[in-house]
Amino acid sequence: MAATKKSLQYVLRSISTGRRSFSALPQGNPSSSQHLINLEYQYIAHNYHPIPVVFSHGRGSCIWDPEGNRYLDFLSAYSAVNQGHCHPKVMKALVEQAGKLTLSSRAFYNDKFPVLAESLTNLFGYEMVLPMNTGLKAIIVSCCGCFHGRTMAVISMSCDNDATRGFGPLLPGHLKVDFGDANALEKIFQENGDRIAGFLFEPIQGEAGVIIPPDGYLKTVRALCSKYNVLMIADEIQTGIGRTGKLLACEWEDIRPDVVILGKGLGAGAVPVSAVLADKDVVLCIKPGEHGSTFGGNPLASAVAIASLDVISDEGLTERAAKMGEEFRQQLKKVQEKFPEIIMEVRGKGLLNAVELNSNSLLPATAYDICLQLKEEEFFLSQHTIQ
């Protein structure tokens, strides 16, 4: 049954209740939001379809536009600002290091990256760090619905036609399996034997719509990877650094992947930082000249990442995410009970959450329309289509 306009408005009001008041920031760029949106439309590639609002200032969980309107940011740049926008400790580290040294390249040592590497290995329990994403040969098994980026290698692993349409030739050596189906994964392992190098997955699928696997799935995957001598590679770029109420989302099932990929929240929204964590038997397979990056492990990013991790730990943000996420979902489920024909499911872990809507009941509105309306209520969210 299609939802009435009145009931949709009530859903929006129910979701947006309980707004807190925040002190206003000074007006920033005198250019109007509409002018800036027009400039972007004219001069920038149309590879995104953003919500029509311009970010000008950010503090904590809030964003201001050039006109001084304040919004509550529920998206957090896809988990890149888990510490909040412009956290003072992170900004202090950024400014101080920017005045000393920003780049050394990996041709030399610098005085920040070794400190970050030690911190990462101690915190997450691995022996070594590679300051960028790694690549493996042979066959890689990946899950349909997972998002690992937009390079030619990783879109070759994708089941999303929008990611691969118009690109090619796609790289061979990839097998795909449904997320959450451990039996299908074991069948692939059995059929391909020792040709499989690794299984790449997100512990919770973010871009697909916050898809949480069945209880026990990750433990079963861990057992299968150990049995068939396959590297278990966890992409924790969006789920890691405390977002789900655990430092790593894999900790919800108390499992230890062979390789963990980190990013986004590691840089607290200040600079792009990525790291691959593994033990020596994996990392030391990479020899000088085989893999590298000019900006990998640079002192500016390293200083920011050190501060970012300190903030997560010192302020108890992981535990806070678990508590706030539980309270948030409880309130959303109360709204769901009133409108079960519209809200199909409320799900998530910590502060990585989704509200799945019944597209038939929304017609002619879409999830994007809901995001636009919530923007008027001073909330930022993002929409995803369940494939």
TrEMBL record:
Domain of life: Eukaryota
Gene Ontology annotations for the cellular component aspect, listed alphabetically: cytoplasm
Molecular-function GO term, any one: identical protein binding
Lineage: Eukaryota, Viridiplantae, Streptophyta, Embryophyta, Tracheophyta
Source species: Papaver somniferum
EC code(s) of this entry: 2.6.1.13
Protein name in the entry: Ornithine aminotransferase
InterPro entries for the chain: Aminotrans_3 (IPR005814), Aminotrans_3_PPA_site (IPR049704), Class-III_PLP-dep_AT (IPR050103), PyrdxlP-dep_Trfase (IPR015424), PyrdxlP-dep_Trfase_major (IPR015421), PyrdxlP-dep_Trfase_small (IPR015422)
Pfam families assigned: Aminotran_3
Keyword Zinc found: no
UniProt KW keywords: Aminotransferase, Pyridoxal phosphate, Transferase
GO biological process terms held by the UniProt record: L-arginine catabolic process to L-glutamate; L-arginine catabolic process to proline via ornithine; L-proline biosynthetic process
Family in the record: Belongs to the class-III pyridoxal-phosphate-dependent aminotransferase family.
Cofactor(s) the protein needs: pyridoxal 5'-phosphate
Transferase found in the keyword field: yes
Pathway: Amino-acid biosynthesis; L-proline biosynthesis; L-glutamate 5-semialdehyde from L-ornithine: step 1/1
Catalytic activity: a 2-oxocarboxylate + L-ornithine = L-glutamate 5-semialdehyde + an L-alpha-amino acid
